[in-house]
Amino acid sequence: MTTIERLWEDDYLPIRDALHYADGRSYDVELDSTAPGGFSVLSPFDLDEILKDDPSWVSSVDGQASVDLGEKGLLWGGEGSYGSEGFFARLTADRKLIWVMFFDGSNPFLRIQLSGNVATFRSTAGVEITVDIDDP
C-alpha cells in the first residue's frame, strides 16, 4: 500500500497543492485560471520524502459532494481541516483511491458536474477545475 493510499484510508491528505495517484506518483499543481482546466501540473515529487521531514503536515478531509459512476466508481469532493482547503478525487466502486487533487487555497469543492468523461469541480470560492476523469 502506498503512502497516499494509507493517508486516504485514514481520511487525510498532505497539505500541499498536488495531484496524487494511488500508485504513489505525486505532482505539484497550481491554480491557474488561464490554463486549460483551471490548473497547471508542475514537477513530480516524492511524498514519502516530504512527509519524512514533517509527518504531521496533513489535513483531515471530509467529502461533501459526489457523483456515482456506477461500476466505474465515484467522484468525490469536499473540504480539508481548514476553511480554505478543498479536494476532489476519483474512487473505485469500493471507495479505494484512484487519484486525488488537493488545494490549500481553493475552499471546499461542493459541486461536481459530469459530461462524458469530463468533470468540472467548483468550490465555494468559485474556483473551477475541469479534468478528464480517466487522466487528470
Textual characterization of the structure:
This protein has 136 residues and is mainly β. The chain has one domain. The protein is 10% helix and 49% strand. It contains two helices and twelve strands. Strands 4-3-2-9-8-7-6 form a seven-stranded antiparallel beta sheet. The radius of gyration is 14 Å and the shape is globular.
Helix/strand layout:
Elements (H helix, E strand, L loop, with lengths): L2 H7 L2 E3 L3 E4 L4 E6 L7 E7 L1 H7 L4 E3 L1 E7 L5 E6 L6 E6 L5 E7 L5 E7 L2 E6 L4 E5 L4
Antiparallel strand pairs: 1-5, 2-3, 2-9, 3-4, 6-7, 7-8, 8-9, 10-11, 11-12
Strand numbers in spatial order across the main sheet: 4-3-2-9-8-7-6
How much is the radius of gyration in Å? 14 Å
Q: What order do the helices and strands follow?
A: HEEEEHEEEEEEEE
Give the amount of beta strand, in percent. over 45%
Quantity of strands, as a count: 12
How widely separated are the two ends? 22 Å
Task: Quickly count the helices.
Answer: 2
- Secondary-structure class: mainly beta
Query: Any low-confidence stretches, pLDDT <50, length ≥5?
Result: none
Counting structural domains, the number is 1
- What form results from the Cα inertia axes? globular
Largest sheet: 7 strands, antiparallel
Give the overall pLDDT as a whole number. 97
Oligomer: single chain
Provide the helix percentage.
Answer: 10-25%
